[in-house]
Each structure stands twice: as structure tokens, then as C-alpha cells.
Amino acid sequence: MTTTNSLLHHRYSLLKRLSTSESHLPPPPSSLFLHPTTTTTTTSSTTASTTATFSLSPPTSTATTSQQQPISFDTLQHHLSTQNFLQADEETRSLLIVLAGEAAQKRGYVFFSEVQFVAEADLRAIDELWRQYSDGRFGYSVQKRLWQKANKDFTKFFIKVGWMKKLDTEIEQYNYRAFPNEFTWELSDETPEGHLPLTNALRGTQLLNSILSHPAFAGEEDEKAAENEVQGSLRENISGPKPLGSLFPKPDYSF
């Protein structure tokens, strides 16, 4: 009986020493556990919402948002300088998507209402590169001049720049060319002026209308048209009323 009590007392003493030594052990490294970090978002109405997230390491310093990188036109310039007009046309479309904003980038194409968000300097830079490497035959400003010359009639404009082809029918009819094989991707005397860059008009002309009407191209052509209109009004006031027949000009079918 004495031996049993001695063994029980010895075991109790050993467990007590182990318990005392464990209480002095250092805590485990904090990086081994998930630590909640609190992020506070304040809205314009001064209401705050708090959300808790978890990370495998202690919170680090807040990352700064990188500023948006400027748009580069080097790729477009390279394709144009090497007369690779097909790739230049594709690059132009890609640039317009980027310049139109985040929604256009996610969608993959540009709405006509988004053209207004494209900076004048950027759209003008694209146009200048096209004119520079085509001897002034390609570019949006060239297309705008031809569009205005056609009294902003898109059917006449499409025929003029070669985007529509004449059908082999008894009645004079035209149809859109098939992309890309039926378009001209080289610069020659036979290439229609204003043929490039292309703008898809199969779903309507609003996008092209927005591009050609962009303030980036509200330059000399508009000023000259306004000036000619003023001069015409002055000549009419000086010379007096015109004969009745002159008020109805003869139709021009030469286009």
C-alpha cells in the first residue's frame, strides 16, 4: 500500500513539472496562422463599411496603384512604315478599343457613343501616321473630306473609297466587299483614295459618323466650308435676287 502511494505521488509530481514547463514555452510564430486584416471603404456619403479578409502572413504596407501607361503608337508606325496595311488596320482597331475606355476593352469593340471619349490628340496621331505613310491617300481626315464631298451620303462615300463593289446585274447595284480578301492592302495608283483604315459599317454607319465628326478633324475643311457659305451669301446680297431657274441646280450624276 505504501509502495502504491509512493508511485502515485511520483507520477503527480512529474505531471505538475511538465505542466509548469509548457506554460513557459514561447508562442508559435504568428506567420503560421491566418490573421484577419480590416479594410475600411468610405463612400461619398460618408458611410463606412468594414470587411474582414485573411492572409497567410502579417499585413504588409499598402500597395500603390500604378498610373495608367501612355498609349504607344510604335506598333502602328512600324506596320505602316513597312507597308503592312492589313496589320496596320488591325492595330488601328485595337487602339480605338483601348482609347475608348474600359467598357469597350471588356466588350472587344467600340460603341459609337464611346468615340467622344477618345482624346483629340490620340485620334489625330493615328490619322497623321496613316497620311504620312500613304502619301496623303489614307487616313480619317482624308475620308472625312471625301465624305463631305459626297454631301455626307454614306452610299456614295462607300463607292468612292472602294468599300462597295458593283454587281454584275442589269440594274446598277452595289454590295459591300468581303473582309479581308476583297479589300486592297497595298498602295498603288489603282487603290482608291481614303480606302484605309476600314470601319465596319455592316451594322450601321453611326460609328463611322462619330469618328469622322470627331472634334479632332474639325479643322480646315469645316472652316473653308463655313467661309465659302459666308462668301456666297455676301455675293448673293450684292448681286440681288437670282433668277428662278438658278434656285434648282441640275443633278450631278458624275459621282
Automatic annotation (TrEMBL):
Residue spans of biased composition, Low complexity class: 31-66
Gene3D superfamilies registered for this protein in UniProt: 1.25.40.620, Gun4-like
Any single Pfam family the record assigns to this protein: GUN4
Record region (Disordered): 19-68, 219-255
Domain of life assignment: Eukaryota
PANTHER family xref list: TETRAPYRROLE-BINDING PROTEIN, CHLOROPLASTIC
The protein, known as: GUN4-like domain-containing protein
Organism of this sequence: Hibiscus sabdariffa (roselle)
Lineage: Eukaryota, Viridiplantae, Streptophyta, Embryophyta, Tracheophyta
